[in-house]
Write a structure and sequence with these properties.
With 225 residues, the protein is mostly helical. The chain has one domain. The chain has eight helices and no strands. α1 runs antiparallel to α8, α2 packs antiparallel against α3 and α3 runs antiparallel to α4.
Length: 225
């Protein structure tokens, strides 16, 4: 990777750290600006990789990162406009879903082996088990349930296929991306429990945001390999 990319990574982590601090202080507008700025760093990294390669793979991931940035901004914008909070939150989830679909479309041409469908089925099964537990133990509105089924299904299937590629046809790109995808998925699980369990903890919020940002940075950086 180019040295400038490491500068972007460092700036991104500083902005992400400031965002976590400012959000905890309930300065939500400034927090959202910082969050969007931190996300812009992984989008710029993706843009550098895309412009350096112009492959369909990099293109899909670059646009996936853009949708992730928009989702980031929307998820925190719900605190700025609390009356429209649910609609804004669900719209943010929709943008993340589109981003994951783009990631999945980029991965599928590489996943031509017989293990692809078992991996996809395992991912779908993991998502189904998690959703069943969430719906049984937590109070979740119908709209969130519907979005959750599609979103978590896409996330877990994409991650399972990424792991399959890294295991059965390993490369630096595949391994780095798979690690990023796993961290992204883990961050979503933490977010769900911290949002819908009825007990919100700042420590879990830090965990969620840290796992998410490292995951997105790794996904963006995987495009250089």
């Amino acid at each position: 990777m180019k040295p400038f990319v490491y500068v972007l990574i460092a700036v991104g982590f500083i902005l992400q750290g400031l965002f976590i601090k400012v959000e905890h202080e309930e300065k939500y507008l400034l927090a959202d600006i910082l969050k969007g700025s931190a996300s812009l760093m992984f989008v710029i990294i993706g843009a550098i990789a895309y412009l350096g390669g112009y492959s369909e793979y990099n293109k899909l991931f670059f646009f996936g990162l853009i949708f992730g940035m928009i989702g980031d901004i929307l998820l925190n914008l719900r605190y700025v406009f609390p009356k429209q909070g649910q609609k804004i939150f669900l719209t943010g989830i929709l943008f993340f879903l589109i981003g994951h679909i783009l990631y999945l479309l980029a991965l599928l041409p590489q996943a031509r082996h017989v293990w692809v469908w078992p991996c996809a089925l395992l991912g779908a099964l993991a998502a189904a088990c998690l959703l069943a537990y969430i719906f049984k133990t937590m109070e979740v509105k119908k709209a969130f349930k519907i979005f959750g089924i599609f979103y978590l299904g896409a996330v877990f299937i994409m991650t399972a296929i990424a792991i399959g590629i890294a295991v059965f046809t390993p490369s630096k790109r595949a391994i780095i991306y798979a690690i990023g995808a796993v961290l992204f998925t883990a961050s979503d699980v933490v977010l769900i429990f911290n949002t819908f369990s009825g007990v919100t903890k700042f420590s879990l919020r830090i965990t969620n945001l840290t796992l998410y940002y490292i995951g997105q940075i790794l996904i963006a950086c995987s495009l250089f390999f």
